[in-house]
Amino acid sequence: MHTLKLDGVSSGYNGKPVLHDINFTASESSVYVVLGPNGAGKTTLFRTIAGILEPMSGKVLLDGKEIGSAKEPRGSINYLSHYNALPDEMTVYNALRFYSGMEGGDPDRVIDLLGLEKLRDKKISDLSQGQKKRVSIGKVFLKERALYLLDEPTANLDPGLSKEIRDLILKLSKDRLVLYSSHNLYEASDIGMNLILIKEGKLAMFDRISNVRSKEYRVGIRASKDITKIVDARKDANGYYVLTVSKPEEAGLALKKVVESGVLVTEMRELDNPLQELFDGKGGV
User: Buried (b) or exposed (e) across 228-243, using 16+ Cβ within 10 A?
Assistant: First the structure.
């Protein structure tokens, strides 16, 4: 079991702080969702934990050792940024072999684990965004690490593929310490057990996701066909099929049912945002 501790951490760029006095300890092997709107400081937090940014004050410790210029703790972390950062002219296999040559790990194991066999000999430049994301995740999980930082891994992916990527990460992150950033409370509830809520660069909440409550969720789905006979939904004036559910998991099950019925889903989004309630101080915990 590994422990990540942030002790009074402030961090930012060019002498201007973005994060202010962050304190928390993550010691449970699970997915910790770092939640907040765009600009809240999530990426700055990840870069600071990874040792890319040096804290202006405070300490970041992994298993009791301070992260910074020291090679040992930094080598126990792998960081997936929201950029794929893959060599376009390499094949999937050669790219994974290239990274394993630098950091260790088994490309064949990762290809098998992530179902990349059909993409093995394709160039990175020929892959879809979803396929590139799978390869990027494979790169991160090549070698066993103490801590994985995944910065918005489902950004700009369609709902079905986002669900597939989350399920894949859950499979790979079993018994590991993972920080997963998002600005979507529905996604947070689907993948994480613990919540790190960042508001305006400050720690607004550190708690179990199960303790974050909302009376109901309204989810909008855009689809190629009428889905009202498949799930309990109504169509609104904006073209969304609207589902009202008591918890996010129900929306995920409804999406799965629609997709398995052969309907193309082009968008799925929250119509009511419990995250905004949390930021406004209206949400219950």
Answer: eebbebeeeeeebbeb
**CATH number for region 4-211:** 3.40.50.300
3-class secondary structure per residue, the chain? CCCEEEEEEEEEECCEEEEEEEEEEECCCCEEEEECCCCCCHHHHHHHHCCCCCCCEEEEEECCEECCCCHHHHCCEEEECCCCCCCCCCEHHHHHHHHHHHHCCCHHHHHHHCCCHHHCCCEHHHCCHHHHHHHHHHHHCCCCCCEEEEECCCCCCCHHHHHHHHHHHHHHCCCCEEEEEECCHHHHHHHCCEEEEEECCEEEEEEEHHHCECCCEEEEEEECCCCCCCCCCEECCCCCEEEEECCHHHHHHHHHHHHHCCCCEEEEEECCCHHHHHHHCCCEC
Report pLDDT digits (tens) over 195-254: 999 999 999 999 988 777 666 778 999 999 999 999 999 999 889 999 998 777 788 899
Tens-digit pLDDT profile for residues 60-118: 999 999 987 555 667 789 998 877 778 999 999 999 999 999 889 999 999 998 889 99
What are the extents of the domains in the chain?
4-211, 217-280
Q: Which amino acid makes up residue 134?
A: R
